[in-house]
Amino acid sequence: IYDASMKYQADGTPLVVLAGKEYGTGSSRDWAAKGTILLGVKAVIAESYERIHRSNLVGMGVLPLQFEEGD
Prior knowledge:
- The chain has 71 residues and is of the alpha/beta class.
- It has one domain (2-66): Aconitase, domain 4 (Alpha-Beta Barrel), CATH 3.20.19.
- Helices cover 42% and strands 20% of the residues.
- The protein is built from 3 helices and 3 strands; from the N terminus they run αβαβαβ.
- It has helices spanning 2-11, 29-38, 51-60; strands at 15-18, 41-46, 63-66.
- Strands 1-2-3 form a 3-stranded parallel β-sheet.
- β1, α2 and β2 form a beta-alpha-beta unit.
């Protein structure tokens, strides 16, 4: 993943993560958000987020988008 993300960053290609439910649940949420931006991810589209992780993503400049219920 790291090598691919470095290539995309060198090429100027922004990345988006597609995720399921409760994205960001677990420990070390602050580093999870930091790692996301360091990999060049600009947005995460998920069914739902762990509340603190969602805030951490915003703080790192990653756009957290959420599917509407039922989509």
